[in-house]
Amino acid sequence: MVFLRGKVLVIGDTCVGKSSLCQVLSSDGGIYPKNYSSTIMTELIIKQVQLTENNDTVELFLYDSSGKAIYFENCKETWLNADMIVLVFDLSNKESFGHVKFWYEKAKETFLYDKPIIGCVIGNKSDLSSVVNQANIKQMSDSMNMKYFECSAKENQNVMDPFKYLASEYVKKYNENIKKFKQIIE
Amino acid sequence: MLDIPLARTGAYVSFATSNDENHPASNVLDGNSSTFWVTTGLLPQSIIISFPNVVNLKKIKITIFKVQNLIIEKSMKPRAKDFDIVTEKSFKNDNHYVQESEIEFGHNFQARHLKFTISEAYDSFVGIQHILAVFG
Ligand SMILES: Nc1nc2c(ncn2[C@@H]2O[C@H](COP(=O)(O)OP(=O)(O)OP(=O)(O)O)[C@@H](O)[C@H]2O)c(=O)[nH]1
Ligand SMILES: [Mg+2]
């Protein structure tokens, strides 16, 4: 049983639903902001994720970043020392999918040295009809070594799953680090 | 003197930002090479070692994993507050060996508390195996 904390970057184009996902997640489905309110720079949302296996808890520090270009440079400064990334696009907006790789590359620059990236891709707004080809999504997620999730913040559909996944990968990494330290001192 | 575990001199950990009960902060003082303190995520991470009274220190030796930047501060106050920076150290990334560092304090170095802050790291979780001291 461990209690870990990790910094998660939530990034992607403007209006894909990053803030909506974070709000729905942190309120356990209680709050879905009906009106769009553009995120200014970065907003911090803290969410504890309980894992059933071993009773581990991970407190995720979600850095909900604006997708607007004018805030980009300032946002990037808040990305330092991140542990995980969530790349969000809008299933009803092809362009937002096309930009996922861009966000990934930018986030990657802030992961120094050989620190491995734990992350996932979220196709949001699954309640709308998708205009993005499933095979393309798979190919892109695979190329970044990331698991793909589909959800709807609006309908509170599958919102918890990607964050549970991140939390469990983070715990896995923690246990691996401890194992590595033990090997080194042996 | 380096060989005596600090815990046996009355020194103790008075504060730590991470506490996994299987790898507690007190492990850095126990002199046991197979135990260590692990941080449980986010930066910075700090640990404060307190002595029962003001001590004269010649040097300390620290062995760590995956630390990039370490800040060492001291306080002379009975309570652990009003810290002053003593030194800052950078480390190279190493996947196969512990990172070792000896810090010489020079003459007449006194402290009641030492604070070690990991401000930058090469990984999400870092470890401290030992903090050893040579008294003056
Ligand atoms: N249909 C539908 N609309 C959604 C969903 N999630 C968010 N929206 C809407 O999409 C718009 C943008 O949502 P936000 O969460 O503010 O988007 P964002 O990615 O945070 O945008 P920036 O802060 O500008 O980067 C809002 O009008 C939301 O109501 C969803 O799952 N389905
Ligand atoms: Mg937003």
Description:
The complex is a heterodimer of chains A (186) and B (136). Chain A has 186 residues and is an alpha/beta fold. Chain A has a single domain, classed as P-loop containing nucleotide triphosphate hydrolases (Rossmann fold). Chain A contains six helices and six strands. Chain A has a six-stranded mixed sheet, sandwiched between helices. By secondary structure, chain B is an all-beta fold. In chain B, strands 1, 2, 3, 4, 5, 6, 7 and 8 form an eight-stranded antiparallel sheet that branches. Chains A and B meet through strand 1 and helix 6 of A and loops of B. Guanosine-5'-triphosphate binds next to helix 1 of chain A.
Descriptive labels:
heterodimer, A: 186 residues, B: 136 residues, eight-stranded antiparallel sheet, globular, binds guanosine-5'-triphosphate, binds magnesium ion, Small_GTPase (chain A), GTP binding (chain A), P-loop_NTPase (chain A)
